[in-house]
Design goal:
The protein has about 325 residues and is an all-alpha fold. It has a two-stranded antiparallel ribbon. Helix 4 runs antiparallel to helix 5 and helix 7 packs across helix 8. The longest helix is centred in the N-terminal third of the chain and has 28 residues. The radius of gyration is 19 Å and the shape is globular. About 10% of the residues have low confidence.
Length: about 325
């Protein structure tokens, strides 16, 4: 399912759009104290994403790639317009807009020490919506798809979990869950997993170590059997494919609600494919990959069951994740 990937250049654009969205909120924050804390978060976000882009450029042997986020407004607008003109970029535009629409800043970027960010929130959600609607228009997408994304995501989250959930925005709870509001497996996840999977390491070394520990990671070029050149899997693409079993199984055994949020994103994409683009073939491919991913996670569960006592918590978490994915598969089948 390489169509669910963004290449390095597209990933840089996505992060830059999220940066500008947050920057706008920082400027609209009147309380000087909170504004300064938001500035600190935004700087950490920029450093983290640029580190990630640099790491990926090295892996893909692209030494000349500009790893800095686009911080000039006119340059950013030109990049957005270029994507609009690019043939066959419909899914790319959809994925970028979806990730920006569902992006909720001020999650933990490094560790539990980021408690100063816990009370932060967007000053005005209406401004965010207008930003996303303007982005949609610039990309050649209908502005009303922003509200549709939000509504479908909420319905999917509640439908898959079977209840109202507080995971719809910045209310993600639990260490790893704090990173799932943005693109899956962002640099944040490497920072959060580093103390567990790469003790004693920091910076680029920790990022590389965590990616290696996760079997290449969804963000690694060629990771999980994906075709080379794809850097970030978005819109639920990270939970597709049997090759994701090892890395995804490790993550979901620690953070099962990651399956919920990603499956919800995937349902949003499915609805777009079926109801708007009427691409039934692609929708059928997704369902096939979902089945394969579940089987792969069930294999991972069997491995954990060999030592039930030692893996008790991981077993419970992975069972919960598989349950979410099975319900998501059923809902996607019903769409057809």
């Amino acid at each position: 399912m390489e169509e669910f990937g963004l290449n390095l250049d597209e990933t840089r654009l996505m992060f830059s759009l999220q940066y500008f969205l947050t920057l706008r909120d920082v400027r609209d924050t009147r309380d000087r104290k909170y504004q300064n804390i938001k500035k600190q978060w935004l700087q950490s976000f920029q450093n983290s994403t640029e580190l990630f882009l640099s790491n990926q450029a090295k892996q893909q042997q692209q030494p000349s790639f500009d790893c800095h986020l686009i911080t000039d407004t006119e340059t950013l607008l030109n990049r957005v317009r270029n994507i609009k003109k690019t043939p066959g970029s419909q899914l790319t535009k959809l994925f970028i807009l979806l990730e920006v629409t569902l992006f909720v800043p001020y999650y933990s970027l490094q560790s539990s020490q980021d408690s100063q960010y816990e009370k932060l929130k967007l000053s005005d959600s209406h401004i965010k919506n207008k930003y996303c609607q303007s982005l949609a228009k610039a990309m050649g997408l209908p502005p009303d798809c922003v509200q549709r994304f939000q509504e479908n995501y909420k319905k999917a989250m509640e439908g898959i979990s079977g209840q109202w959930t507080n995971l719809l925005g910045g209310g993600l709870v639990g260490g790893l869950l704090l990173v799932v509001a943005t693109a899956f497996f962002t640099p944040a996840i490497a920072a959060l997993l580093a103390p567990i999977l790469a003790p004693g390491l920091s910076g680029a070394a920790a990022v590389s170590a965590v990616l290696a520990a996760l079997g290449g990671g969804a963000i690694a070029a060629g990771g999980f059997g994906m075709a080379g050149g794809f850097a970030v899997l978005v819109a639920g693409g990270a939970i597709l494919g049997g090759g994701a079993g090892a890395g995804m199984g490790s993550l979901l055994a620690r953070s099962p609600d990651a399956a919920l949020t990603q499956a919800a994103k995937l349902e949003v994409v499915m609805k777009e494919l079926v109801d708007v683009q009427q691409d039934i073939r692609k929708a059928q491919e997704i369902i096939k990959e979902q089945r394969q991913a579940i089987r792969s996670l069930e294999d991972k569960l069997d491995e954990l069951l060999v030592d039930k006592k030692k893996n008790k918590e991981k077993i419970e978490n992975l069972k919960k994740a598989i349950k979410y994915l099975q319900e998501a598969l059923k809902r996607n089948r019903d769409l057809l």
